[in-house]
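Input record (one chain):
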Amino acid sequence: MHTMLFRVLVLSCCLSLGYAAIPAHEIHSLPGYVDKAGKPKTLPSRHWSGYIEVKIAANGTTPAGSAFVHYWLVENPAKKPDAPTVVWQQGGPGGSSLIGLFTELGPLTLNDASYEDGNYNKSGVPTVFDNPFSWHNAGANYLFVEHPAPTGALCLCAAACRRCWCWW
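The corresponding structure, as predicted from the sequence alone:
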């Protein structure tokens, strides 16, 4: 637990300095983020999503291995390299931070209207809307972290048997 918290804090500090963006994790589009005609829209800011590996030591009931904790990073709208980074972990324990990202404070939102839009009726993909009340408009980067393991989109791997279990 302390190792993961330390890694999240280090990642947060690096991201706030602009050093840790992982090009392969950058999101360029999202299913359902479309205009009225159903054409894909450009995201309002840069987003990254991926996994942070956290080593897990063996204990009496659990073999040694790794947890791959899911994160989603939203860059500040002004693209300022020195903007602060807010780390968001949903309350719980066990509440996915993607709930905060997509229904509470993130720049994009999913809500009841996501299933009532004409595009949803055509594609079966819920419509993603801009969130005019996003905290993201305050000028900070936002790092959403799924925590504790196994919350949200997470994989656990046992080193001894080279096997992984993933949840979404």
